[in-house]
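Final report, closing paragraph on structural work. Over the funding period we assembled a curated collection of sequence-structure pairs, and we close with a single example.
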Amino acid sequence: MRRISSAALIMMVALVSTVTAQADQDGKKVFGWVEKTTIESWDVEMKAKLDSGALTSSMQATDIENFTKDGEDWVRFTVDVEDDDSGKKVERRYEKPLFRDLTVRGAGGRDERPVVLMKICMDDTVYEEQFSLRDRSEMLYPVLLGRRTIQHLGLLDVTSTFQNSPDCDENSEVKHNKDQKDDEDIGD
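Its predicted structure, as stored:
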């Protein structure tokens, strides 16, 4: 029985290695279900949960306020997180154009949230993605990356964490939201 278990384990490891090697050959990066990220151009490193069960990404935000600027809808908000490098609480105030409004339905009812475009660094690339804003201070991860974002990143390995570290600078590739092609099969 032990020989069978050992053989099965060896085969599983070989299969995972083959899948990872295949992903690399296809030019797609592999990310774990938890990764470190930074919000550009704020060099504060924080944890992000990659959640294939969520469609839209979400970011920790407080003091969320809608306002009008030059006839357009904007959102003012504070991102307050713990810097993973220093362990200190840090915050930054943002003003961004409102990209769209999002209605989230759940067991607790309906929740209306503003969505803005934010740039985050994942591995060595900057991604401009849609983020709904909500107070995630009671959550373990201040940033949640949903399927809309995951499809732009590459592949998700739900058995691993911290496969990449944010390493972006002024020469990093920037993938703008408007230039990203969304897969029609990612769901609603």
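Helices lie at 2-25, 147-153. The first strand starts at residue 29 and ends at 32. We thank the funder for supporting this effort.
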